[in-house]
Automatic annotation (TrEMBL):
Nitroreductase domain span: 12-188
Organism the protein comes from: Sporosarcina limicola
Name recorded for this polypeptide: Nitroreductase
Record-linked InterPro entries: Nitroreductase, Nitroreductase-like
Keyword line: Oxidoreductase
Residues spanning the signal sequence: none
Stated family: Belongs to the nitroreductase family.
Amino acid sequence: MSQKYNTLSEIIHERKSVRKFEASTEISKEEIAAMLSEATEAPSSSNTQSWRFIVIQDSEAKKKIKEFSFNQEQIETSSAIIAVIGDTEMHHNIDEIYRSNFEAGNIDKLNMERQIQNAKALYPIAPTEVLLNIASFDAGLISMQFMLIAKAKGYDTVCMGGFDKKQFAEKFELEDRYVPIVLIALGKAAAPAYGSTRLPLEKIATFI
């Protein structure tokens, strides 16, 4: 296993977007599942957890995805592609989520019932655009969390929004409620990632 990092600050600074992966590196289904499970500790809107995942390790499936993803090399050479999918009908899980939270002892029955009532009054009638924005925002939170977890375990990633989402949805026969948000290539870097700079804080933050 490659270098592991001891602090969150190290992980954040060492994580870079890698576009050349070692095609021979294999990552087990169990290890990817463990990383995804840990990533689900990310926050989400009203804890609706609108994210879904398709983990693609099959070489022929990756080749097909590459065809409608601007032929990006990392799609085919990565150990896996994690497709992060947004569920725009997240309200179907409201009862299960809040009842589970109650059974875990995190909220009392009164709060559970109030939260279920409030969520059911909001999400089922929200415009599709609003629901898509929520799902996209939640997908961004968990995607970043997953990439940091992967880096902490010695793996590399790159997050990609540049792919034909309609063709992806058709290939994987997604229901209308499920919307592809990003693809995350996961593996071991075959070449160093390019460095990048950031705007100075005084240009992007105001303290009042």
